[in-house]
Structures are given as structure tokens and as C-alpha cells.
Write a structure and sequence with these properties.
By secondary structure, the protein is an alpha+beta fold. It has helices at 2-23, 145-177, and strands at residues 30-36, 39-45, 50-51, 55-63, 74-81, 90-91, 93-96, 103-109, 114-124, 127-138.
Length: 180
Amino acid sequence: MKRWWLAGFLACAALFWSAITAAAAQGPIRSETRYAGVYSLRIDLYSDPAFTGKQLRFDVLVGATTTDQLRGLTLTAEAVPEAGTNGTLVAASVSPESQSAGAFQGNVTMQVRGGWRLRFTVSGPAGTNAIDLPLSVAAPTAIPIWFAWLIGLAPLLGLVVFAVRQRSYLTHLQRAAFPA
């Protein structure tokens, strides 16, 4: 009987762990490539849709035909509300990554839900160009995502407990029917 309690405890632990790992994003959720003149920008977003009041993290990798065009490269970003979205222009925080040329990290926080455009302006030896990336900004979630997964997977725990109880009941009936 003690083994069944251990199995039940392990099932609970597995359920809890699966809820936590399902909620933890390992990498970018959305990745798009846009072209601004001779520069190509691969934009990785870590949330899609973005949520109001939360930072939207993004990485940008700028590529060019020659490495000379990447020297002295600067990148700025801003969130521009679409028509019908009651928001104001929001400047994004963008910093170069020291590991490779043309790599940038940034974040921006929008306070109003609706349609937005993330405008990137890249300036370098090959000129200055801008591109837009459409975004959807949603209202914050009512409950944390890990808790929603825990609630959604809870019936699985009930099935495990039911199976364990039925197995012990069947064993009890067999022992009663065929005494040693």
C-alpha cells in the first residue's frame, strides 16, 4: 500500500513540474526577418501577443552584404500605436550585444491594448532605413499561466488516484475470494 502513496506523490510532482515547464519559455516565440535597404533584420520576440504593463523582450540581429557595413551600426526602436489604439509613442530600450557585431537586445512596455507597430531604425555606413513590425498587445492574463496549466492538468491526477484505488480494491477482492 505504501508504494501506491509513493506513486500518487510522484504523479502530483510530475503534474506540478509539467505545469512549471510548460509556462517557462525557452526561446523566442516569434521570429521574423525584415529588410531595410541593404540591411536584413532578424527580429526575435519573446512574447506573442505582448501584454499591457509587461516588458516585451526582443533580440535583433542585423545582417549586411559585407562586414564593413556593420561597423558603427546603431539601432533604435519605438512602439507606434495603430489607428484606433488610444496610446502614445513609446521609446524602446535597445543596447548592443557585446558578443557579435550587429546583435542587439531590447525591450519596450506598452500600456494600452490594441494594434501597435514596432518601428526599427537602423543607421550605418550603408545609410539609414526603417522597418515596421506589426504587433498585437493584449490585456494582462487573469491568472498566471503556470497556474492555468496546473488547473488544466488536475483531472489527470484524479484519473491516477482513481486507477490506484481501483487496483487496490481489485487486489482486496482477489484476496477475499481466494484466501491463502
